Write the structure tokens for this entry.
Amino acid sequence: MASVRSHENIELMTYSEIIDVSGYVGNFKIRIRKKPRYVDENKCTGCGTCQDKCPTKADSEFDFGIGKRKVIYTPFPQAVPNVPVIDRENCTYFIKGKCRACEKFCETKAIDFEQTEKIVEVDVGSIIVTTGFDSFDPAPVSQFGYGRYDNVITGFQFERMSSASGPTGGKILLKDGSEPKSVAILHCIGSRDTNYHEYCSRVCCMYSLKFSHLIREKIHDAEIYQLYIDLRCFGKGYEEFYNRLQEEGVNFIRGRAGEVTDLAETTEEKGKLMVLCEDTLIGRQRRIPVDMVVLSNALEPRADVSEVARQFSISRSKDGFFLEKHPKLDPVATTTDGVFIAGCCQGPKDIPDTVAQASAAAARVLATISKGSVEVEAATSFIEAEFCSGCKTCISLCPYNAISYDEEKKVSVINEALCKGCGTCAAACPSGAITSRHFTAEQIMAQLEGVLV
């Protein structure tokens, strides 16, 4: 990220969001809202004094709620640029009109409470969409006790807990501050489930196995249970890692957990979380007492995926992720020329696959730039102006936003760079003014005559 920021040909616009996208391949116009940080990027040195002196804390989004951050904060370690942002919703100054401790202690006078948002317009030739994913919220799956029991956490919360830069300094701790002596890791929470997401999230098996290794490394005598449907260790070296964990004494139970409860049936179960499951390998129901439960929750499309799809004219598959042009022959392109996708916005994938897809998308953009021209579809539609009544029916029906209205001539106009020749407009035009090239009525009748002769 530091290399990207320092590159002379790259402009990095952080803490910003896209408002509107218009145009077509080679001629996109994008409006971007740059939100106020209330910190001057040119003056700030990233010393951290403002964060140390800030008296107010809020839940940390980066730590998934298990840690706290200051109201003026850097979003995550090694963030680029290394400039903090003020959380306006929780800042004492914006709420009560007093405090401003960060401003008082900032030696470079970088704090600026008068900053406002800016609207920037840029012209680009191609777009790569890499909006990522959201983590499935397991609270609706109430049988697992997430949100009801203190020591039931998600995989992402465990990841932050076990990180050296996390809220516990890398220590795996229960709510009371003690180390767990037994941990159950439940696979496929929200994925491979007809009630939530039918697809496999692909990364859950391997990060669950990684968690077992981290627990064994930090708590040598801990009892670890992996409850799985089936393990999908498909990558290079993955199967070997699974075998290594078996040698480390991790307990693998083939069976999906049915419930997590704190109701004890014996004295040994008091104070424990009970994981109820069926072990399909031995054909028995089991009650497994543990101190901590880690839920390997699914990857799912971002919450704003519908809005982003509309802005960039991208189709979506039935699982909600962005749809590629062809799953094998063109996996990074979309049906909108000049718009490419990469990473988990297209579907769940691990880091190596994401890097490969991102490199492919960048190569496609560079190929377009070096070529200097763009080929458009041959089978596009055209409007005969003398027959167009200006009813605008075609404009609302076009799935590619390729049709606009000429106010001066009072007729609709088709942009051939956007048109894909789907024929929707031609079929719906009440005046018969729209014709699809290479698919006219005369051509179709000639083909039928040829077949019938």
